[in-house]
Design brief:
By secondary structure, the chain is of the alpha/beta class. It is built from nine helices and seven strands; from the N terminus they run βαβαβαβαβααβαααβ. It is globular.
Length: about 280
């Protein structure tokens, strides 16, 4: 995808597959240069089979981290991501399950700490969205499901992991541009992303005395499987075109921000959100 290109029309069934996207998302840039910024660290990343999560775990592996790759059920994408981590010379544990299941969260922490002893970096990235034209079209079940995945799962995994995150650790939460400007067809999704911003700010203050930093990243329109699997082919063909840069972003363009927030370069940053959105200026 060139600098001024929006995707061609396409649609997939949920949850979507990165391997079926055209063009496939870029998860690492040829210009990226690793520097051992996470050497020896242990990172847990949710929603890591594809999209932003794939880019994050591959960058972390290239920076020297041991990675726990968490995903729901997109097994083919997860295997591809696992292969990319190993190509980068990284160690990886791959765990499939629902982050909104407290038992699964406990299992993740048990397996990761059993193998590597601690968790230095937790990236809460898993999310889902279900566009609806009108509020009346959002069922109570959909509202609850979106909140369960996007914010309840974040709370449950963070709670399970916290006893094993040492001083100097980092928690990074994926929120969204929709938390700040809303989206008329993503009302429940936008509400969860606003909750994530508040969760990030409050938790950062709560954990400052323990030496654990908490920050967020608010992506704008990013080319991931979530897009062709939740929007119509026509909407996909216009995706990202309304940004100042005139295109959607690539996962590879976000991942370095997650590296920055995970490593000691950001030692004086907590309770903040980085806006990577193609040039849209936001207050907050």
């Amino acid at each position: 995808m060139n600098d001024k290109q929006t995707p061609p029309p396409q649609h997939q069934e949920e949850p979507g597959s990165e391997e079926q996207m055209h063009p496939q998302p870029e998860f690492i840039s040829e210009h990226y240069r690793s520097g051992g910024k996470l050497q020896g660290k242990v990172a847990v990343v949710t929603g890591a089979d594809s999209g932003i999560g794939r880019a994050v775990v591959v960058h972390y592996a290239r920076e020297g981290a041991k990675v726990a790759l968490l995903y729901l059920d997109s097994h083919e994408d997860a295997r591809k991501t696992e292969d990319e981590i190993r190509k980068a010379g990284g160690e990886v544990i791959t765990l499939a399950g629902d982050v909104a299941d407290e038992g699964f969260c406990r299992k993740v922490v048990e397996e990761v700490t059993g193998k590597w002893g601690r968790i230095d970096v937790l990236v809460n990235n898993a999310g889902e969205q279900h566009p609806q034209e009108k509020l009346e079209d959002i069922t109570a079940d959909q509202w609850q499901q979106t909140f369960r995945t996007n914010i309840f799962g974040m709370f449950l995994l963070t709670k399970a992991a916290l006893p094993h995150i040492p001083e100097g650790g980092a928690i990074i939460n994926t929120t969204s541009i929709t938390a700040y400007k809303g989206n008329p067809v993503l009302i429940d999704y936008s509400a969860t992303k606003g909750a994530i911003v508040s969760f990030t700010r409050a938790l950062a203050m709560n954990l400052s005395s323990r030496g654990i930093r908490v920050n967020g990243v608010a992506p704008g329109p990013i080319w991931t499987p979530l897009i062709p699997s939740t929007f119509s082919a026509e909407q996909v063909s216009e995706f990202g075109g309304n940004t100042p840069m005139g295109r959607p972003g690539q996962p590879a363009e976000l991942a370095p921000a997650y590296v920055y927030l995970a490593c000691s370069d950001s030692s004086y940053m907590s309770g903040q959100v980085l806006h990577i959105n193609g040039g849209t200026v936001l207050n907050g």
